[in-house]
Amino acid sequence: MDSQRNLFCPHYDGCLHQAVKRAWDGWSCRHCPLRNFRVGMPEASEYAHSRPRGPDGT
């Protein structure tokens, strides 16, 4: 079920709060009308440059 969550939705924190408050085992954004809305979603290049370097600095 977790794979159906939209981590980049501006309402994600509010939904998480409600799930914890109501002691839900989990929830999904699958049926939410905002499920495809993305705010602040990083580009692949941002991930590539943010990887930690190895012990030899490469």
UniProtKB/TrEMBL annotation:
Protein name: Transposase zinc-ribbon domain-containing protein
Domain of life of the organism encoding this protein: Bacteria
